[in-house]
Amino acid sequence: MSLVIETRQLSKHFGKVTALDGINLQIRQGEFVAIMGASGSGKSTLMNLLTCMDTLSDGQLLLGGVDASSFDEDQRRRFRADRMGLVFQQFHLIPYLSALENVMLAQHYHSVVDEAAARAVLAQVGLEHRMDHLPRQLSGGEQQRVCIARALVNAPEILFADEPTGNLDEQNEQLVLGLLQQLHRAGHTIVMVTHNPELGAMADRVIRLQHGHLVQEEVAYAPVVA
Amino acid sequence: MAASHPLFWRLVSRALWTRRSRMLVMFLALWVGAVIICALGAIYLDIDAKMSRELRTFGANLYVGPQAGRVLDEPSWQALDQALPPASRLAAGGFVYGMARLQQESVMLMGANLESMADLAPYWQIQGERLAVSFDERHAMLGKKLAQRLELKPGDTVTLVKGSQRQDLVIKGIVESGDSTDYYLIVNLALAQRWLDSPHRLSHGLLSLDNQQGQVESIAARLQQQFPALEVRPIRKVSANEGAVLFKIQGLMGLICVVILLLSTLCVNTTLMALIGERAREFALQKALGASRQAILRQILAETLLVAAVAALAGLLGGALLAQLLGQTVFSSSIGLRWPVLPLTLGISLLVAALATVMPVRRALALEPARVLKGE
């Protein structure tokens, strides 16, 4: 399997504070990788760099074989829209757009709106009956599934999920985890930040961070990909 | 996001509706601005005509008299009157003055074309009635000071005495002019000429001319050349000040517009800044999803300009009403809403709104999705 993400001595400094220090990482296509660590370990910073939402201080970031280290803001935006899907802990849905319109919004910023495709992906996450509802009319689990549908609608190469069950009750947590596993089995590359060991155990591989250093990589689960 | 896509307009319209109370504040700020621009714009464009007419109520603006050592007779006066451009001539009247004797005392007798006095001296305040016909030889008007001195009032009779001749005159009105007329006995021109033994002679003539384009000066110069035996000169007190007053009023209106527009811009700017703060997550999310800087700019501009356009259209209506109100109050006449007011109001309102978005747009574009979406 080809590498979709590779970091070489990746570092990020905020003034005198080093948030990430010399991270070397490889993620292959179809892998489900969990990034874990305590608060302040640097996992969110790493996620921001991998999703091109922030710029690195030192080192190199290769995404799909392309050197993204020196991308300008517009290149990072374009790369993110074209090749990544983002799932947020707090869902971040536009409150005055319906579930369907929220999904279509991602299509709009990507290329063109295809309502049929948006409906199909919402059906894929089990929301075919809630498409015209506003976020406030949906449960937390349903909102997270809209968020996942939005992340999937442009067929991204990598799905990034930042604490995807952090705001959900247990029932909805299981629902979302089941969905992520399903996507993984369907061949999606998933990178997930979590502090929850149970979630980490679902991944093919767990990367542990501590004080900005990569301290451990372990296979947590029988990987789907060979 | 392409502005032409229905999703874009859905995003814009729902964003406006969701924050309708803030949008209402923005709308009102822009509406007030549009009302003022429209009303003052309408008056500005109409003011030349209106003010010229108003200032003309101060009376005559051209004096015609004899050169030193010459006399002004009625044929010369009529020839000059006929040489005036008909479109500019509003009123004309000849005057003769001389001492006359009443039973009580000697007074200054003023003969005038009484039918023209309403136009030549509209500022006269009259107690009783105005003498307005030239053939009336049984009535007279008295200057206020003279009337006070002689203790006369409308309805009383005075008698002109000249040798054995007597001419009874019933006082029809008491004139307060604020000038020397207040000391005169005023009768019609023919009676005064006869009584003063000055048939067909005038002391001077006065003309009221249209001065919208400042043409009094040029007309005076032309008449002076044509009638060298006469002294023809503008009455500067009125005609020269006319332009200065107009200029000052227009400047004042411009200043009011600028102040109101500044306040509108400030209000819209403040509202938008607050809105961007409230919507930081929305814009950060859009950026995270791939929205370009242009897409964010387009959205904020579309929302703001939409509100501004509606405010400007509503402002045109309010402005037209305000212009009429001001026209009736100040000029006692309606103000014509000329077509340039429409693009002027729309253009300035949109410009103000666009200017007000500069800082909020910069703030929205500076949002860092990673930090905002994390709630930092």
Please provide a brief summary of the model.
With 226 residues, chain A is α/β, with parallel strands linked by helices.
Number of helical runs of chain A?
7
Write down the domain tally of chain A. Answer: 1
CATH domain topology of chain A: Rossmann fold
Order of helices and strands of chain A: EEEHEEHEHHHEHEHEE
- Second CATH tier, the architecture of chain A: 3-Layer(aba) Sandwich
Largest sheet entry of chain A: 6 strands, mixed
- The secondary-structure class of chain B comes to alpha+beta
Distance between the termini of chain B: 27 Å
* Uncertain runs of chain A: 222-226
CA-based shape of chain A: globular
Poorly predicted regions of chain B: none
What value does the average pLDDT of chain B take?
A: 86
Rounded to the nearest angstrom, the distance between the terminal CA atoms of chain A is 9 Å
**Could you tell me the number of beta strands of chain B?**
12
Indicate the radius of gyration of chain B in whole angstroms: 33 Å
Instruction: Tell me the β content of chain B.
Output: 15-25%
Let me know the number of strands of chain A.
10
Keywords:
heterodimer, A: 226 residues, alpha/beta, Rossmann fold, six-stranded mixed sheet, four-stranded antiparallel sheet, 33% helix, 29% strand, globular, disordered C terminus, B: 376 residues, alpha+beta, 2 domains, six-stranded mixed barrel, two-stranded antiparallel sheet, 13 helices, elongated, ATP binding (chain A), P-loop_NTPase (chain A)
Could you explain the architecture of this structure?
Chain A: Keywords: ATP-binding, Nucleotide-binding, Transport. Chain A: InterPro entries: AAA+_ATPase, ABC_transporter-like_ATP-bd, ABC_transporter-like_CS, ABC_transpr_LolD-like, MacB-like_ATP-bd, P-loop_NTPase. Chain A has 226 residues and is an alpha/beta fold. Chain A has helices at 43-50, 73-83, 99-110, 115-124, 140-152, 170-185, 197-200; strands at residues 3-14, 17-28, 32-36, 58-63, 66-67, 84-87, 158-162, 189-194, 205-210, 213-219. Chain A has a 6-stranded mixed sheet, sandwiched between helices. In chain A, helix 6 links the parallel strand 7 and strand 8 (189-194). Mean pLDDT of chain A is 89; it is low at 222-226. With 376 residues, chain B is α+β, with helices and mostly antiparallel strands. Chain B folds into 2 domains: 6-54 and 244-373, no CATH class; 61-234, no CATH class. Helix content of chain B is 55%, strand content 19%. Chain B is built from 13 helices and 12 strands. In chain B, the strands form 2 sheets. In chain B, strands 3-4-9-6-8-7 form a 6-stranded mixed barrel. A two-stranded antiparallel sheet of chain B has the order 2-10. In chain B, a hairpin with a 2-residue loop joins strand 7 and strand 8 (165-176). The radius of gyration of chain B is 33 Å and the shape is elongated. The chains are: A alpha/beta (226), B alpha+beta (376). At the A-B interface, helix 2 and helix 3 of A face helix 1, helix 9 and helix 13 of B.
